Amino acid sequence: MDLGIRGKTALVCAASKGLGKGCAVSLAREGVKVWISGRNEAALLATAKRLAEFRVRTERADVSSSSGWDRLCGNIMSDGGRLDIFIITHNSRISAILFEHSLARMKISP
Predict the structure, then answer these.
(1) Angle between helices 18-29 and 41-50 (to 10 degrees)
(2) What's the Cα-to-Cα distance from 66 to each of 1, 15, 84, 101, 103, rounded to whole Å?
(3) For residues 23 and 65, what is the distance between their CA atoms, to the nearest angstrom?
(4) 13, 35 contact by CB (below 8 A)
(5) Which tens digits make up the pLDDT trace of 61-73?
(6) Rounded to two decimals, what is the model's pTM?
(7) Are the CB atoms for 11 and 35 separated by under 8 Å?
(8) Domains and CATH numbers, the chain
(9) I need a labelling partner for 70 at 20 to 30 A (CA). Which of 10, 31, 78, 92 fits?
(10) pLDDT by residue (tens digit) across 6-40?
(11) Are strands 85-87 and 9-13 parallel, antiparallel or unpaired?
(12) What single DSSP character describes residue 33?
């Protein structure tokens, strides 16, 4: 099924295992450039290795802090200047608020 998202850029948080990993795999298969983040670097690299044939970027990040979001968003923006899809599978409310603040500080519309 073509979801019409080929060529988009996505950020999937907590993507080293479980639901986040499943989302990252599905998006990559649809032709999306996927950024995966999480706190466990070894698990992130294992997920990236599984997705080696796709356009996947990894970023070890603790998104429970503003500084973690700032660094992550800054790296994504410097790599292509856009973020079309955002998936977070943990601490949704807190992380979403911090994410929004990071975008605002960089003058990017969510």
Answers:
(1) 30
(2) 37, 19, 21, 8, 11
(3) 23
(4) no
(5) 877 777 777 888 8
(6) 0.78
(7) yes
(8) 9-105 (3.40.50.720)
(9) 31
(10) 999 999 988 888 888 999 999 999 999 999 998 88
(11) parallel
(12) E
